[in-house]
Amino acid sequence: MKKIFGNIINFLKIFLMFAMLFITITVISSVCFSMSTKLFNQFSGFDPDNCFLLLTIHHILQAIITTIIIVFISIALKIPLKDFGFNTKNFRYSIKMVQVFCFLWIMIQTGGSILLIKMTSMSAALTYPLTFKNFLGYFLFEILFTGTSEELLFRSLTIPVMLFSLNTFLKSEQKSQIIAISASTLIFMLAHINFNLNPFKITYFNLLQQITCFIFGTFFGWLFIKSKSVLGPMFAHNLLNGIITIVGFIMYIIFG
Predict the structure, then answer these.
(1) Mean pLDDT for each consecutive 10-residue tract of the chain (256 residues)?
(2) How far apart are alpha carbons 50 and 87 in whole angstroms?
(3) What Cα–Cα distance (Å) separates residue 107 from each residue in 101, 112, 201, 243?
(4) How far, CA to CA in Å, does 149 sit from each of 144, 146, 197, 207, 235?
(5) Which secondary-structure segment (H or E) carries 160?
(6) The whole model's pTM is what?
């Protein structure tokens, strides 16, 4: 009975940590988006199709604010910044793992896209008007800013805080790491779902995107833990999003 009660208490602690991190990340993202919308309105002429500039500004602001918060947490909890992934540890190892994963993903995405287009009514159309400026701007956004910003938010901020808290009441380091990776991945997935709170309504949900977020989030989290650095996940995230963009463009040229 005592063991069952202890497990319930531990579950509630984990859920509370998850909820606090999810709310924090949601607020950071929402505030940055609101700020970037105001900035975008001043420079919208540079991107009249709203293809890449708003997203770029949002992710730059998100990276800056997340870094400031991480530094504050590092000072408050006396956790070295290197434990948040701010180091160059095992980068060569990360590169090797990313190369293997990216090769497999190219095969999976290309084959899966062709099958879905052939077997279903899924369109190969792009989500933006295809011009050189739009494609270049969107591609540069994907390979430079998505992983850089989102890995700070979803891995550097989430995993170390989870591990710091979990290690205070869980004896198994492996269990703590699995929970931390799972929590960061779930938050990553939820962040790619749009919803209204009052009244509650899901306004955007894409099953294929959620599956991709689950696979990528798990890999990025594992790589963060394994390499003890955020550089590998950043590189992987940017590169994989670039691959997705290129494959989508090729599918559009062939089937669009």
Answers:
(1) 82 95 96 95 92 97 98 94 95 95 95 88 80 96 97 98 93 94 97 84 91 97 97 97 94 85
(2) 35
(3) 10, 8, 36, 11
(4) 9, 6, 25, 23, 11
(5) helix 158-166
(6) 0.94
Please give the Cα distance from 85 to 225 (Å, whole number): 9
* Tokens describing residue 92: 């060569």
Place of tokens 């500039």: 53
CA distance readout (Å), 7 to 74, 114, 159, 167, 170? 29, 46, 21, 15, 10
pLDDT for 256: 67
Please choose, from the candidates 148, 136, 183, the residue with its C-alpha nearest in 3D space to the C-alpha of residue 162: 183
Measured CA to CA in angstroms, residue 238 lies from 44, 118, 122, 124, 203 at distances of: 25, 28, 25, 22, 26
What's the Rg (C-alpha) of the chain?
19
